[in-house]
Amino acid sequence: MPSTHRSKRYASLFIMSGLVAAAQWPTPKTSMEAYEFVQARRQEAAKLWAAKDPKGIELLTGAMAYLEQPLVRDLAAGNKFLQARRLNILLDLAEAHALRLNKEEMLSVLRQASQISPSPELAKFIESREAFIPFLSTPEFQNVLAGFHFYDRLWDSVELGGPSRGELTEAERVAGLSKFWSEVKYNFGYPEKLIRLHWDRLYLEWIPKVQAAKSSGDYYKQFMRLCALLEDGHTNVYAPPELDTSSKTPLRTVKIGDRVFIEEVFAPSLEAQGIRAASKFCAWMVNPC
């Protein structure tokens, strides 16, 4: 394909530039020394390419060739900061080419960036940059941006993350529970809490509960009870808006230790049953009554 040929031809410029400039580059003794050298070149180049000076592109191309040296590649393997400069330089180059309206070169560099980091967040960043505005609506540019969304269908598949289709099947309920358990196990910010809770054991305990749920509403309530055990304000389960799972008991409570105390009651009917402020009951999340 033509775009592939252009990409290979453009990548060869890095190697050619390296052959010319290698004699002038200092030999780094540490990975941070190489990192600081590349960052200095980027800063120097930024002043030039921001002013649409082609010398900025030359400096960036040389910095990329510097990173391609075997010694620097080996150093980068053990230093994530140095390793990330490759992507940073590609984004700098793409923006520099965009400012000079070098469309094909810009697209070629962005394709390389999408192969290194196929991230939707990176696509949003690119779309937000003023230099790319003239190209946003073109099919070629949108096709390149699609490369940054390559894994979207894996992380947020239609099968497990699509719109509600009415009552969930038993398989869908178990799959939803499994996805939540996995996301928490590998991404939760307080793994020591998961150890204390025996997170895998809770997962096994909740499988029959979601299987036995009589409706999608019941399923989400079971789901929320599991989530509540994490006691984390940034981890929540939200049911689809058509399901009424958000109704609350007309009272306000406060948790002290493993006990919950009633601070205020908003319904006379509850007071008539003897439920008043300052009375206490077992916290079902910790000590089931």
Describe this structure in words.
It is elongated, with a radius of gyration of 28 Å. The N and C termini lie far apart (68 Å). Strands 1-2-3 form a three-stranded antiparallel beta sheet. It has helices spanning 2-21, 31-49, 54-67, 70-77, 80-99, 103-116, 120-128, 139-146, 152-155, 158-161, 170-187, 191-197, 199-212, 216-228, 268-272; strands at residues 251-256, 259-265, 280-282. Strand 1 and strand 2 form a beta hairpin. It is mainly alpha-helical. It is built from 15 helices and three strands. Residues 1-11 and 279-289 have low confidence and may be disordered.
Strand order of the largest sheet: 1-2-3
Q: How many strands appear in the DSSP assignment? A: 3
**Cα gyration radius (Å):** 28 Å
- Helicity level: 55-70%
Approximately what portion of the residues adopt beta-strand conformation? 5-15%
Number of helices: 15
Distance between the termini: 68 Å
Sheet/helix structural class: mainly alpha
* Global morphology: elongated
H and E string = HHHHHHHHHHHHHHEEHE
Largest sheet: 3 strands, antiparallel
The low-confidence parts are: 1-11, 279-289
Short description:
The protein contains 15 helices and three strands. With 289 residues, the protein is mainly alpha-helical.
